[in-house]
Design goal:
The protein is α+β, with helices and mostly antiparallel strands. It is built from seven helices and eleven strands. Helix content is about 35%, strand content about 30%. The chain is globular.
């Protein structure tokens, strides 16, 4: 089993945003202003006050909210991570923030591969061109029920970025097909010795047909082949997390994302 402090550290280091996002903040917090197509206005993706006493946390909290408000943010998403000071979550709840999403933080070593028995009828392709990149976006929107298609020029950029990453041993994204229809997707990033799985989704009509297992089998094989010895994922508690547990992942904690009206 992996040490809990290792998982917490790797989870805290996992911060992603697209190149066309705007950033607010500094050393104590980072707010991402997402592009219009993303479906979310702004998110606090890192909160690291210089000190952890209540006064310091509250001061950093107020500064973050004030920075978002000054930039015209009406509703702020705030992801509370495993290593964040508990006082931050208390402040969110005291200000009337509501939980938007809660995920389990799961990890497993890659010393051996799980037997996922992916169905033969599911074809899995890496996003090496514009068509598969567009398919991955459509599947993610349908699977998560939010967001909208990026403009064509952004899809071309995504295809180029993910193709370069895949061919360069840094990960990428897979798309699963049933009878020629795109029905599932899953992303992977190799970060040192850790493989991060993200944006795993299946369209509702294809659920319980082994689509997710096929995607997971493909990305785990890629991670093992490219030097990762640990796999980290943040899975929705009611949906994907149970599948990851059946694949040998252990739950190490939770992350909760709140919506705070400013």
């Amino acid at each position: 089993m992996i040490a809990a402090d290792v998982v917490a550290r790797e989870s805290a280091a996992w911060v992603w945003y697209p190149e066309d996002a705007r950033l607010l903040g500094g050393e104590e917090f980072l707010i991402v202003r997402w592009p219009a197509w993303f479906g979310t206005e702004a998110t606090v993706v890192r909160f690291s006050p210089a000190a952890t006493d209540d006064a310091a946390v509250e001061a950093a909290f107020e500064t973050a909210c004030g920075s978002a408000r000054a930039d015209g943010v009406g509703a702020l998403s705030w992801t509370h991570r495993m290593a964040d000071p508990p006082r931050a979550e208390e402040l969110l709840l005291a200000r009337g923030a509501e939980i938007h999403e809660a995920v389990d933080v799961l990890a497993r070593p890659l010393d051996e591969m799980p037997d996922l028995a992916p169905p033969a009828e599911v074809e899995v392709r890496w996003t090496l061109d514009v068509d598969t990149a567009a398919d991955s976006q459509r599947v993610a929107i349908a699977g998560f029920g939010e967001g909208e298609m990026p403009p064509p020029e952004r899809i071309e950029e995504i295809a180029a970025e993910e193709s370069a990453a895949t061919l360069g041993g840094l990960g990428g994204r897979v798309v699963a097909y049933l009878d020629g229809e795109a029905v599932g997707t899953c992303g992977l990033t190799i970060a040192g010795r850790t493989a991060r799985i993200w944006s795993a989704a299946t369209i509702p009509s294809a659920e319980r047909r082994g689509v997710f297992r096929a995607c997971l089998d493909e990305v785990l094989a890629y991670a093992a082949a490219h030097g990762a010895d640990m796999v980290l994922v943040k899975g929705r508690i009611e949906t994907s997390a149970p599948i990851f547990r059946r694949a040998g992942f252990e739950v190490y904690g939770q992350e909760r994302t709140y919506r705070l009206a400013l």
